[in-house]
Amino acid sequence: MNSAPLRFLSTIRILVFLPALWLVIGLGDRAAAQQGRFGVGFDQNMSRFIPPPRMLNQQLKDAQEAINDRRYSDAVVILGDLLERNVDPTDDSSIAGQDFFLEIKDSDQQRLDQSFLRHCRDLIGGLPSDAFATYELRYGALAKQSLEQATRDRDWKRLREVRRKYFHTAAGYQASLILAQRELYLGHPLASSLLLDDVVSSRHAVDQLGQGLLAMHAIACRLGGRSVPRELASTRVEVTIGDSADAETITDWRGWIDEHYQLPDMDSISRSADYPLLGGSASRNETDAGQLPLSTPRWMLETTATPLEEQRLRKKADELAASGRLVPPSWTPIRVGNQLLMRTTERLRGVDYRTGKRVWQYPWFQTDVSAETEQYDAMLGTGASGPPDRLSRRVWNDLPYGQITSDGKRVFLLDDLSPFQMLQINPLMGVRNTSTADGGRNTLVALELETEGKTLWRLGQNPTIESELNQAFFLGAPIAVDGALYAMAEIAGDILLVSLDPATGKLVWKQQLVAIEGAGIQFDAIRRISGATPSYHEGVLICPTGAGATVAVDLADRTLRWANSYQRRAMGSIMFNSRSGQSSDQLLQRWHNSAATASGMSVLVTPPATDNLYCFELVDGKKRFSKSRQAAFYLAGVRDDQFLMVSARDVVSHDLESGRLNWRTDQRLVSAGQQIVGRGVFGDDSYIVPTSGNELVEISLVDGTLVDRVTAQFPLGNLIAIDGEIISQGPTRLVVALGKKTLGPRVERILQDDPDNLDALVQKALLLSERGDRREALEVLQKARTIDPDSDDVLMLSISSMLGELRENPTPPPGLEEELDALIDTPNQRLEFLALRIESALRKRSVADATKRLLDFSRVMADLSPVGNEDDAILRDPARDCALDSWVCARAAEVMRIATEANEVNVVQEELQNYLESTRLESTKRLSAMTGQLGPLGIDDLVVTLGKRRIAEGELLLAERLLLGASLPSQLLDQQQLDFTADRAITLAEVYNEGSLYQDATAVSEALLKSDPAAENKDATIELQTRAEESLAATESSIDVASPVSLTWKSQSLPGAGRSTFLQAVVDPTLYGGQSFQGWKVVNRGGSVMFQNPDGNVMQLPMDEFRAARVQDRKAKISGGLMILERPGRISAVDLFALQGSRRSDASLWARDFGADGASNTQRKIETTVFGDSNFSYPTNAGAANQISEFRVGPVLGDRVLVLQAGDLLAVDTTNSETLWRNSSAPTLGHILVDQDRVAVVSYMKGIVSSVSQFDLFDGRAIESAEWEHGKVWATSGKHVLAYQVDAKSSAATVRLVDPFAGKVVLEIDAMIKQPLTQVAGRGCGRILQDRYMVLFDTNGRLVIWDLLKATELCRHDTGEMPELQSMYAMWMDGQILVLPANAVVRQKGDMLTQHGETHRTVHQIIAVSTRSGEIIWNRDFQDDAWGITVDQPYGSPVVLLARSKTIYEVNKSTPKMDVAMLRLTDGETIHEQLERVVSPQSTGLTTYLTVQPELSRVQATIDGEQLVYAFGETSAPIRQPAE
């Protein structure tokens, strides 16, 4: 590029120096996390643009009339005074000096680019020459005086004031030219061209400044990426280059500029040595200094106030990550000089960037965290569940709290941020909100960096200075531009742009942007949590208001440049009839950040209140395109004419010019079960994203392919890159890590000059450790320790390197363990050291050493306040998380396995006994932890002690879960397998007796007597059994169905719509053990969830979820005294002890969500088997998860329930929903089984996957994987899988019951299928009853029933051919399985209707089979006279009801009639029959709802609008037909 000055031959000679124009503006990748959708969607804008006040409109009208009347002097005075913006004392001070848009329409989607003050300027510019002279005469002298003063003082603010007030004077033109020159010098040609746009459009300015002005404008336009003005094509301009005496005439402007000037990179990338705000600079397009760091941090700090907060945040992060909704945290650190400034959960901290030492904090005094929490919870109305939600709101939702900015001398932040308040709108009672919190104001704080956080000023709720802004709510931290602060604030329903003096906080000027027509900021959840802060690019301040509009302001002129409004998607803060306790997690479904990103001519805006990204032209605000957010969290930034959108599992590139898709990252970019958890950083030609598995993944900007990945030994969050280092701030930690690429050369240079430089030695040791040269690293560290023996950094790194050597070297150098043992002085290091020694002992199969070290590990844990990250250093597996208790438990199981094989169990017991003797008086919490850690070693005495404590405390469910441990209750309660001591079993029986689960108490007693009839505790067992049986007999009553029965039949006189049977879906829970709740059902009735007992009576279940869940989507599992309810993406736990007793309101234990990419993308899928049975699964959103995946809940053990969520296999604590372990390398779909200490996931999808993957039950460690060779999975029970394979002719199938752990087939049978392709083949049907029994029936009359839990064939019978077999259903009722086959029915006019809906089915035969013996008890044949039967009648009913109907049509008349028959369950005899009962014309249904009332000796049935009451023991009376 030619750097010689450019000399224009014109009336004024101007020197324009254009060195290489590399822009230094940075622009933030900001982004978004997804807006909550639980509110009412208002299809309207929440803001409106304000037209000029009537007074200003009148002045403008007077000026225009004066111009039309050629009264130019009057027009000059009016317009000149308007542009001077002098405040008249009689004017409204709130609008004085402000600009307004013109031509505002009544539309929520409009673009405005005409403003009041610009129009006034244009009117002056259009005046004739004589009027122009009048203007110069009136204002020129004052303008010239100000120009000379500004030039003499080099006062750029005053120079802008000359342009702003007196643009159309000679001084105003010269001021504009000088300002444009300055922007060109600073490398901002686009800003220069915008300043010159108004100048070159004025013939007076061109006449005064000459045609060289046009050349300068053309150069600025071309270098700024704009088109060269067309007018120049017909304009002859001569220029002289440098000292040349010859003038050059330009005709081809583009060619001439390209020949003489190098086009700069208009990328707005920040290349500053500081990082003063989100995005790196005011354009917010980030830095390009990103590089993969070392896996070991340089230093690390907590972001929480207490260990409890850290524990809560880690738990919340795990929950969000498991559901794909872990969005980037709300906070981003900044660096100014040698200070790093970071938000924590309670404070702002100033940290020495070199050492990581805390230097100062704001507020400096110690706050009462508990008091603040209580106040916060009172505002929210959250009660006891408030603190965790308070933290999660602040860490993931509160952008105004998390973002801080600096101008290099000061740091600015928002304080006194009250939580948003939820408006409750009741259609009858209107708006309701009981909160009195002052949420309409907050405080903007300025702290001085030089004096370590001294408060300079505060504005707002708790001010230190008087200001009209003390009534404001500041929407976000301000940005600093050219020595001034700019922020957006809401006051009395208006959103303003305010300019402040950064040193004093004094209001310099303000500009109204929009007026709010909806709820105030304290009631608008999306606006409150997203905030709003300006961006600055090329002279334009871009202000996304967060209220459905973005406004651009010309900063030099203080005029409105353009505005765009767009429709808000929803008002997430307003709810109708809001009693559902919606969590703030739903607000995560939005763009994470609202700040605009600008680069070149483009402005990208991601309004959190919409689901779109908008691209606007910087110059005039024209919309170039919009893109749907889909699952994206945030906009990363702009590079190479493309912009990146980042979602949970992928990065997508779009063309900046058209918005078209360029590329999308591969589905394997992020490891299975992981997601992107923070904002990334740009490298030279790459982008680096952080993941939940602590992986940093680098992708190419060319095509999105994987460049490299690194597993960090520290938690990740939002990243910033500066000075060759990566800074990461996640929910609980801030970390500084050295970059690999630049560290080596830099360290070598420093050590070459100063071999004893301590920092360089430490960094070299880090680099050597990263490369695996740990011994050399230890030598370097030994030297560093000699130089500074007291250096904490050297000590910590030495310990870390020694631990690394011990971890990776099976034969460490002699003396290393002893030296390391002496150096370690923190519990976390001690745990890692002991863990390595435990693993070493296990490798050597040393039972004694492994046991001792395991117990030492448990002791250290007892003294530790766990926060949830202790496993990071021990596991070092990005695909797996594991609570330390679970890790210890797995090692204990391994010790016991080796001890058993080596016949050294006595060694374990001896060490264990000594340890337990010293702990018997420990707290309940400590004993509970020990039982979770050491259970496999055989600590039944300790378990019994703690179990009895729990019983005494009334915590029966906790006692039961403890005593069952990691076993299936069915092993003891149903299969009579006793795997622990008699004392432990007796204590469990006591729990069941106390909790009124008498059948289970009896089952435990029977198992005890069966296992050892001559045991010492036989008498105690018999006593328990007797007590349980007596209690059970006292509560049971029955109906004598052999006695006479009478029927009372009533038709309800309700309107037709009201007579229809209420919508409900009945679910037979899967039983994982337990007799007490056998036959209980879950009834989903409308918005309620009921628990139905075996008699058909219901009680409402306490639910904490939104009532709108679809009734057919729920399933249930019962495990002893615990029930797990499941629906798509969510599980919840119900305490059945509490439900049975007097504490029903306490029965709801917990609920946990498992979603996908922040949305409820998990839906129920129904798949019909070849036998006509239906299987249900919950596939997750394949597009979001980049794979075929599903959500599935597995077995419910005593202490854990297993869940598979899109490649994540989790063990969830049944008592509190905490994650015991997680393995992200699991299959993305499959069925889960458990056997002893292993978990198996059987995955099958034809042509895609067919495998059996096994994992450790205690810590989730992957063990082995094998092929699955048995076809489609039909059901699972216990440790067995029921599967089938269809033959090559698709006419029959082989059914197998398989033990996947042993890899063997237990049962096998060839069966007919329902729809064979071969016509001559018979048909067969099959059903699964509560994952316990399989029933097969075919046209040959073959009936086969398998007990899947016991892996036995219950029966095989030949019942006679049914060649027309069409379907078969089955019911499990009180010790019998009723098989209900039906032939194909071709209904003719006048025939009986036998089928209705999904549950009332045709039946041609009923076969009753005993579940005890497998014998057929009775058989009824209806092949000549078909009936209908509701197939979910109550388990405990002593009778079965059949129903059918028909309608008799006559002239002008139809008569509906119904038949109802009652069969005795014990022998199948018809004990009552009512035929051709005339019913109401509205009674069209047949589905039968049965309720048994033994205390009244009656059975009540509801069939649509018909009420039938059967009374036993009474003489049958004739039934009167209703009058026709």
From TrEMBL:
Keywords annotated in UniProt: TPR repeat
TPR repeat residue intervals: 758-791
Domain of life: Bacteria
Residue intervals of the Pyrrolo-quinoline quinone repeat domain: 445-569, 1144-1419
Any one Pfam family match given in the protein's UniProt record, by short name: PQQ_2
Name of the protein: Outer membrane protein assembly factor BamB
Species this chain originates from: Stieleria maiorica
Taxonomy of the source species: Bacteria, Pseudomonadati, Planctomycetota, Planctomycetia, Pirellulales
